[in-house]
């Protein structure tokens, strides 16, 4: 009887460790499978998905946990067109802004980039399309801060576009090439 219980416990432990291994592998494989969505369709995204994506941005780490960022959701098509002229209806833009006040030891662009990437991956993980843009940032900061209701004292750092993606575009054709491993990775030697 005792032996059976121990065997059962060991089996459960094995399952738990296998599951943990799978989860880690799944995350790595998932990251390796992502690409910036180039073709969206106009089916709107679910409110619950958007909220979860924003929560993932809020969860991002920041220097000294200062969280000096704001996320502005733009869903009005006329406003969205001011940011990305050929935007697909039903897409949502999240403008990630960082505090204009510089603080020693804090690189606000870096923190905002982490929040943006968290939301990018969350959207992709939910099966949605996502694309990061910094091209429109200059125009936003020069001309659109009031129109888009970017909070006072903050400047746009990045724009995240999310929406449902065109399922006819497969990951292989949409993927952009990366430099080779040895071109990027080196090791410090004595
Ligand atoms: C910080 C940043 C800024 C970007 N800005 C733009 C942009 O302004 N316009 C655009 O079309 N794509 C933009 N992209 C998308 C990149 O061009 C894209 O990530 C890169 O080509 C690699 O392709 P992949 O994401 O499909 O692997 C940006 C990506 C990042 C990370």
Structure report:
With 190 residues, the protein is α+β, with helices and mostly antiparallel strands. The chain has 7 helices and 4 strands; from the N terminus they run ααβαβαβαβαα. It has 2 domains: 2-33; 47-166, NADH Oxidase. The protein has helices at 2-33, 47-58, 77-83, 108-125, 137-144, 171-174, 181-184, and strands spanning 69-74, 92-99, 129-133, 154-163. Strands 1-2-4-3 form a 4-stranded antiparallel beta sheet, sandwiched between helices. Helix 2 packs antiparallel against helix 4 (108-125). The termini are far apart. The mean pLDDT is 92. The site of flavin mononucleotide (FMN) has 7 residues, from strand 3.
Element layout with pairings:
Layout: H1 2-33, H2 47-58, E1 69-74, H3 77-83, E2 92-99, H4 108-125, E3 129-133, H5 137-144, E4 154-163, H6 171-174, H7 181-184
Antiparallel strand pairs: 1-2, 2-4, 3-4
Helix pairs in contact: 2-4
The protein binds flavin mononucleotide.
Number of helical stretches of at least 4 residues:
7
Strand order of the largest sheet: 1-2-4-3
Using the coordinates shown, work out and report the CATH topology of the largest domain.
Answer: NADH Oxidase
Instruction: Kindly provide the radius of gyration, computed on alpha-carbon positions and rounded to a whole number of angstroms.
Output: 21 Å
Largest sheet: 4 strands, antiparallel
Shape: globular
User: Portion of residues in helices?
Assistant: 40-55%
The class by helix and strand makeup works out as alpha+beta
H/E series = HHEHEHEHEHH
Beta-strand percentage range: 15-25%
CATH homologous superfamily classification of the largest domain:
NADH Oxidase
Question: Which ligands accompany this protein?
Answer: flavin mononucleotide
**What CATH first level of the largest domain would be assigned?**
Alpha Beta
State the end-to-end distance: 58 Å
Mean pLDDT: 92
Number of domain units: 2
| Weakly predicted, low-confidence segments | none
Number of strands: 4
What is the second-level CATH architecture of the largest domain? 3-Layer(aba) Sandwich
